[in-house]
Amino acid sequence: MSGSSVGSTHSLCSHGLTINPLDLWNPLPPPRTCKKAAVWTTEEEGALLDFLASHLSQAGDGNFKKAMWNTAAAHMAHNYPLGPDNSNKTAESCEWKFKALKKSYYTVTDLKLVASGFAYNDEHSAMISLDNANLWDWYVKVMYQAHKDAKPFCNSRFPHFASVELLLPSHGRGQFI
User: Residue limits of the Myb/SANT-like DNA-binding domain (predicted)?
Assistant: First the structure.
């Protein structure tokens, strides 16, 4: 072997991070951990929407305040304890889930318009068959920027349409997305 490894902070055999034994007073920061994403069941989404509906008077300008999201998170934690494959329903995750549900609501609203060319209804979804599959593909792929969020509603309904609709103020949709 040529050379000496005395004073070296790297092992010749490892490729990972090593600790300099001469610098024990400056330990490395703890490894970064990623929080598991909250997984929401349809039942939990419904419970969140019901909770928000029962506190609709506190929405003020049509949006819930941070204190309400904290209360919603506490409600979810109390009624739906953590499971092994799930993360805590935090105030932030409750707010993001509500935003995602509103986005789905507006997507389905667009599908219900006659201009979409589909006969969407709350019970049967868009009812895409072989006869109109090419039109659906065009709608979600070619018109991707305008209708990219429609894909899940091809043959699946949006069970929370009426619940989300009750939570939206009647004075327009632009401020909610």
Answer: 39-110
**20 near 9, Cβ under 8 Å?**
yes
Count CB atoms within 10 A of the CB of residue 95: 18
pLDDT in tens, the chain (177 residues): 555 555 555 444 555 555 555 655 666 665 666 666 778 999 999 999 999 999 988 887 668 999 999 999 999 999 988 766 667 889 999 999 999 999 989 888 877 775 556 666 677 676 677 777 777 777 777 654 567 677 767 667 788 988 999 998 763 444 443
Spatial separation of the C-alpha atoms in residues 9 and 28, rounded to whole Å: 14
Question: DSSP per residue over 99-135, as a string?
Answer: HHHHHHHHHHHHHHSGGG----BTTTBT---TTTHHH
Reported pTM? 0.67
Written as six digits, the tokens of 37 are 């994403």
Q: Which residue has the tokens 């006969």?
A: 119
Cα 28 to chain centroid distance, Å, stands at: 33
